[in-house]
Design a protein that fits this description.
Layout (H helix, E strand, L loop, with lengths): L13 E11 L4 E5 L3 E3 L6 E7 L10 E6 L4 E2 L10 E6 L32 H12 L14 H8 L1 E2 L2 E6 L6 E3 L13 E5 L19 H4 L4 E5 H7 L12 E4 L17 E5 L7 E3 L5 H14 L15 E3 L14 E3 L2 H10 L4 H14 L4 H4 L6 H4 L12
Parallel strand pairs: 16-17
Antiparallel strand pairs: 1-4, 1-6, 2-3, 2-5, 5-7, 8-9, 9-10, 11-12, 13-14, 14-15
Helix pairs in contact: 2-7, 5-6
Length: 395
């Protein structure tokens, strides 16, 4: 399947073509799906074109990810691909779901026409047209026996070196899926981090219509993180720390993290207490990821009601004024610090892993984080812009 495809047949084989004859070690191809889990695959061990059989029908409508592990592929001289390849796609639903194609080669995962209505004429028009583009996504239950945020996040945050594990965003530790969850496992465990703390504007898992509450369950904003580091973050704003803050070190995994003892190093840093006088500084490799997750929320949630469900939504805003960052169920609700988030966004731009995560979440929710696809749109002027008299969408 192509990146972002939404019509892959449930009972079809996958095909992989290399530019030359290669030899595959065990685990070269990995297929993980939201409902089918990790799917056993059958294929030849050498050649240039491979037919990969799933030996079973996939579930209609489920999101999948197909990985080609570079360390498991070699040519006759022993050379390997420079990096892993990851394709996110969705199995065709029973009613069909046409793939709109991709006219934007600079953003290979962006589906055709997704941003066609976005008006970049000025910050106010950009803000309102982005909101109109990404609003109204499919919200899944926070927990439950069917597809939930656990389902989505355990695909989106999968350890690229082991499809049976997740890689958490704060400690950079690899945990076994499901059994490593807080409340299930023992010792170090992982749970779900609200990068925009839910006490700052959306405290409940369900909304005023009894449906999954979109901001609370939004997996563009949620990340799997170490449970203790998550607790230490609490509802503190993201900001710059210093050597007087407490260190929350990372582990070395997937080529990043590890080491401790000096600020900033490869560590998270925290200053107590909780609330707007505290600070949490994310370690360098994840600064941009967290910033873009929070910036997405400020554009996705502009108050009013969801057009499809009629359920109320909060107005979320970014600020540098700590006094505004308080626990509330009213709107507007604030998070920050805006200037720090912009700085993190610029210093740690989207990488292949974050773009692949965007694809996985898009395949479930049906909306995208625009600041991963178009980093140039995230500016202080955008987040401080006023609502225009009328939103002038293109086309």
């Amino acid at each position: 399947p192509e990146q972002g495809a939404s019509t892959f047949p449930a009972a079809a084989d996958l095909r992989v073509t290399f530019s030359e004859t290669v030899t595959l070690a065990s685990g070269a191809f990995v297929l993980s799906c939201g409902q089918s889990g990790t799917v056993p695959l059958s294929h030849a061990s050498s050649g240039s074109t491979f037919t990969v059989s799933t030996n079973t029908a996939l579930v209609a409508g489920e999101a999948c990810r197909f990985d080609i592990r570079a360390t498991k592929v070699s040519d006759a001289q022993g050379a390997r691909p420079a990096a892993d390849t990851r394709i996110a796609f969705t199995v065709a639903s029973s009613t069909g779901n046409p793939d709109p194609g991709n006219p934007d080669p600079g953003n290979p995962g962006t589906p055709g026409e997704y941003y066609s209505r976005v008006n970049t004429a000025n910050p106010s028009q950009l803000r309102c047209s982005l909101h109109e583009t990404i609003k109204g996504h499919t919200a899944y239950p926070y927990s439950g026996s069917g597809t939930s945020t656990w389902t989505i996040l355990e695909i989106a945050d999968e350890d690229p070196n082991n499809s049976g594990k997740i890689l958490d965003a704060y400690r950079n530790r690899s945990y076994t899926k499901v059994s490593g969850r807080a409340g299930t496992g023992s010792g170090l465990t992982y749970n779900r981090e609200h990068t925009w703390p839910n006490s700052l504007g959306f405290a409940n898992t369900t909304g005023d219509k009894g449906l999954p509450y979109a901001p609370y369950t939004d997996t563009h904003m949620l990340y799997l993180t170490d449970a203790q580091w998550n607790a230490d973050r609490g509802n503190k704003p993201f900001g710059k720390c210093d050597s007087n803050c407490g260190e929350r070190a990372t582990e070395s995994n997937n080529g990043f993290g590890g080491g401790s003892g000096g600020y900033p190093g490869n560590s998270n840093w925290v200053r107590t207490p909780d609330g707007n006088t505290g600070t949490f500084e994310v370690w360098g490799h994840r600064k941009g990821d967290m910033a873009r997750a929070v910036m997405y929320m400020a554009i996705r949630y502009e108050g009013g009601k969801d057009a499809k469900t009629g359920q109320s939504e909060p107005d979320l805003e970014l600020t540098d004024d700590r006094a505004k960052i308080v626990k509330t169920s009213a709107s507007p609700a604030y998070m920050g610090l805006l200037s720090t988030l912009i700085e993190w966004h610029l210093s740690d731009p989207p990488d292949a892993a974050e773009r692949a995560r965007n694809e996985v979440i898009y395949s479930f929710q049906g909306n995208r984080n625009p600041f991963i696809d178009h980093p140039e749109w995230a500016t202080p002027a955008l987040f401080t812009s006023a609502k225009p008299t009328s939103c002038q969408l293109l086309n």
